[in-house]
Design goal:
alpha/beta, six-stranded parallel beta sheet
Length: 353
Amino acid sequence: MSLAPLHLVVPGALEQRTGGYIYDRRICAGLRRMGWSVRVHELPGRFPGPDREAEQALDHTLRQLPDGSTALIDGLALGGLPLPAEAHGGRLVLIGLVHHPLSEETALPPARAAELCELEQRALAACQMVIVTSPFTAALLRPWLQASTPVRVVVPGTEPAPRARAPQSAVPPLLLCVGSVVPRKGQDLLVQALGRLPDRAWECVLAGSTERDPAFVQAVRADAGHLGITDRVCFAGESSDEELEALYQSASLFVLPSWYEGYGMAFTEAMAHGLPILATTGGAIPHTVPSQAAWLIPPGDVDALAAALGRLLDEPGLRQDLAQAALAHTRTLPDWHQASAAFAAAVNELAAR
């Protein structure tokens, strides 16, 4: 239990429905259930910056904290704005929470990726500890930091879920893709691959925000139109918990051809529902999704994606084998109570130091 408040600093509203915000929200709730005082600071501005409003908001928030306070700053708010962290790191205990390095976002111009890499290294250097969501990300960040800066891994929790009704027998098979419709998630590749399978029976639902990159969404919709599959691809938008649960229950296959994931909470949620997985080897995905539970292809390979989709659509038995392995794997994963306890242990370790 923490007697002093833990200050959680996030970009924008904590209630946003992405993996990073869900992680922050669940850890915050878990710590509070354990008796911690957690104060949430929601910052205005554009992230990851550079953005003057965002930088001023982060600086103002840190400036208001008493000396010695512990501030846990989400990497999206921290990584592109090193100046406030550098200005206050000497009197505050700063913990960086990194879901994935900002420079790994897909479709960034090389100069922008290099800029974000430099900014994030500076920001993390001002922190007394860095917490990440996967061993993969820990290994990636370790060379950025001083040897004395601890890097702790706290993987997301995975809760038991009702098993999908019949992933091997639904007619036509429903392909479910969960994630904001943005370049890193690869929905354009999925649509292109599905366009090569017009003679097979399938329906596809893309469940995730269509507001974060409207130009990309428009391009994916245009691809579906050019390929003649508009009536078979549904853009469901940002779904409520109840709507998402209904989609999981109806799905035959979970497919998310991300270019990169720092962990991939959508995959573990799908596995908890007993769904077979089609994914890529991008980033931490092979560490999150074991090969026996998924068909993993190289990121960006539309040929491999189309071939895997065809095979999985044609072979319900293969889908069932992957689904069984997925369920077995999720039984080995921590729940959110265990994840919150691990997070608390990491913060307490820093306090003891």
